[in-house]
């Protein structure tokens, strides 16, 4: 039936039929062809079924990104389970909450973490190398697929919220596969591509790349955890053509490229999401890597990708994060739910086959964010982000609800101030804190320039009300596990008065 084509593991099966001997995945330890990746996934699925894992059971995996973790994603799909990836950097304090929320039937982790997990859950905890030994010779004959509907959850992805309360987005097969197929088509992935993925598979930005490369029949390089200094060399060795980036990773690539005297890797496309890329950074990427397009995108885990700037228009409409994916719709609403005129800022609201099913076992949060349209009954995702669309339907991201604020009667966002800062010579990265109860507008910068020069540069680029009162120059901005600015850590620096 048609729905069966939307199951995650069938993307791998299709790739195995088309290009069985092509390299599917590389990590620091080696590589697998599509035939090898499919074989591992079938062995893992058969092992899960033998353990009694059934439809809807959650399999929690806390491992560094690698071939075997990718194979488990497809194996869990074959067995009808739900894949729950968790970042290896997550500590026991948060793992207890995640485990209580996900209620897994099985945990797969590293040798170093096994003892910790035994103190958190009372279900089987399997160490990766022991699992690999068990899978050798596993019989894979007979049916192992127990998923009957593409509406079944495929993955639970825990978002990096700031409240400390676990919140997992329920990602069904149908929505995941729609997003992946559409992105492959819009971005133009092809069989010769080599996608260099620096991100953990616990983040949808990394996880979806495994699925997208299967659909294209190309290669993914899982490089999370590899040496920063070796990144360009690794990209060159693997023939990397596509690099997903966030601003901090883009800055790292540029710092390496400025010192590079050899041949740079044959990158044809950088794709940006997670946080807005400053125009100055995008321009330098295009300059350092001639012919490479820097593709701006906007999305949330709750709908994967929402807009993409068409690759052929990568240098056009500065500031725009592109058009909605085909078959999806973006509305800009005022606080009362009415659509605002073109060019006016409001909340970004999304509808379409990319919108996920809500939050796992959290009906209250689901009702607030995933709201039913009274007119047609469809579900609309209220992103909590703000922006506007132009007359041609291109979206311009202005900031999250806690990044858009008024100061001295003027509406502004942290994003525009940060972009102005990174346009100043010598400023590598910037993070802005909106005014709070204990401090005025503040900015932190990674810079070789002095505080005075940074503030002078901001005065040249911004209206007076948008120039921060507080400016701190730091050696490195604190980052989240996804490479975003850790604003809570910056706020604590201000509270302590640290330089």
UniProtKB/TrEMBL annotation:
GO MF annotations, alphabetized: acid-thiol ligase activity
**UniProt keyword terms in alphabetical order:** Ligase
Indicate whether Ligase appears among the record's keywords: yes
Gene3D superfamilies referenced in this protein's UniProt entry, alphabetically: 3.30.300.30, N-terminal domain of ligase-like (3.40.50.12780)
Q: Does the keyword Transcription apply?
A: no
InterPro entries assigned: AMP-bd_C_sf (IPR045851), AMP-binding_CS (IPR020845), AMP-dep_synth/lig_dom (IPR000873), ANL_N_sf (IPR042099), ATP-dep_AMP-bd_enzyme (IPR050237)
Which residues belong to any copy of the AMP-dependent synthetase/ligase domain? Answer: 14-360
Q: Which SUPFAM superfamilies match?
A: Acetyl-CoA synthetase-like (SSF56801)
The protein's name in its UniProt record: AMP-dependent ligase
Q: Where does this protein come from, organism-wise?
A: Amycolatopsis bartoniae
